[in-house]
């Protein structure tokens, strides 16, 4: 049985006040024991979030990392630095990193390997643009992004990954893939994982991202191959995010 994972990606949003609000909300609200929850704030808030979440079961995540361990990389953060804040998850290959900061498949792979080498859990983000979907290229694009990383990992490393399917056309747009659309892509990813190893396919968690909200989470999470969510805008509102977490229980 795959334990659902609900991860909130704040992107370049938030404040110390919001960190404190979430800390209080999780301290006061009991979460389902059958759901894993993570918050992924901007890097400057990692220390404050670590403190705010102390004593709760909520894990801490980071939005990116540099594949190098140290050196002249102004503005970057290494896996070793993230470990000092008890970070568990780190996003790699988010569409915004791919499009705005030109991180190609090789850069995504390097980040995934650096995370794995340091004991972090990479959340590999994959997804197609609207143009690619309309051209019938969804599976080719998404599975290509999965293969670019998984083909270069060994069997043990693959088991320590999480995959998040985020159709680019649904991120921050208010548009959401229908449950059947999302399930179809998740099923294709799981089938491809089965070509590596049937047990891997059965165990690996696949998250849906792309305007998952409190009012559509339960329907999406009811699909057989959707094991949680990578939440954007709704993760900035305590009540909405907590409602999504409850939906996964």
UniProtKB/TrEMBL annotation:
Enzyme class: isomerase
GO MF entries: triose-phosphate isomerase activity
Main location: cytoplasm
Gene3D superfamilies (alphabetical): Aldolase class I
Metabolic or biological pathway: Carbohydrate biosynthesis; gluconeogenesis; Carbohydrate degradation; glycolysis; D-glyceraldehyde 3-phosphate from glycerone phosphate: step 1/1; Carbohydrate metabolism; erythritol degradation
PROSITE patterns registered for this protein in UniProt: TIM_1 (PS00171), TIM_2 (PS51440)
Keywords per UniProt: Cytoplasm, Gluconeogenesis, Glycolysis, Isomerase
Active site, UniProt feature: 94, 166
EC number(s) per entry: 5.3.1.1
Residues bound to substrate: 9-11, 172, 211, 232-233
Superkingdom classification of source: Bacteria
Family annotation (Pfam families): TIM
SUPFAM superfamilies: Triosephosphate isomerase (TIM)
Reaction it catalyzes: D-glyceraldehyde 3-phosphate = dihydroxyacetone phosphate
Compartments where located: Cytoplasm
Protein family per UniProt: Belongs to the triosephosphate isomerase family.
Task of the protein: Involved in the gluconeogenesis. Catalyzes stereospecifically the conversion of dihydroxyacetone phosphate (DHAP) to D-glyceraldehyde-3-phosphate (G3P).
Subunit architecture: Homodimer.
Protein name from the UniProt record: Triosephosphate isomerase
Organism from which the protein derives: Modicisalibacter luteus
Protein's gene: tpiA
């Amino acid at each position: 049985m795959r334990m659902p994972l609900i991860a909130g990606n704040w992107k370049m949003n938030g404040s110390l006040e919001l960190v404190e609000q979430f800390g209080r909300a999780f301290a006061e609200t009991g979460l389902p024991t059958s759901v894993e929850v993570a918050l992924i704030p901007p890097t400057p808030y990692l220390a404050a979030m670590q403190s705010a979440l102390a004593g709760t079961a909520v894990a801490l995540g980071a939005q990116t990392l540099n594949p190098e361990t140290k050196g002249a990389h102004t503005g970057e953060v290494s896996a070793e630095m993230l470990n000092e804040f008890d970070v568990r998850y780190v996003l790699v290959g988010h569409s915004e990193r791919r499009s705005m900061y030109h991180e190609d498949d090789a850069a995504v792979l390097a980040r995934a390997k650096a995370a794995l080498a340091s004991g972090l859990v990479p959340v590999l983000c994959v997804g197609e643009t609207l143009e690619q979907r309309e051209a019938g290229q969804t599976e080719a694009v998404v599975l290509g992004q999965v293969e670019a990383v998984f083909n270069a990992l060994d069997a043990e490393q693959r088991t320590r990954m999480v995959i998040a399917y985020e159709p680019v056309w649904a991120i921050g747009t208010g548009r959401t893939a229908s449950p059947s659309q999302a399930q179809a892509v998740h099923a294709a990813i799981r089938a491809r994982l089965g070509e590596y190893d049937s047990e891997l396919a059965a165990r690996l968690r696949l998250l849906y991202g792309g305007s998952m909200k409190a009012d559509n989470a339960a329907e999406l999470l009811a699909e057989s191959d959707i094991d949680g969510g990578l939440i954007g805008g709704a993760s900035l509102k305590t009540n909405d995010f907590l409602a999504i977490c409850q939906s996964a229980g």
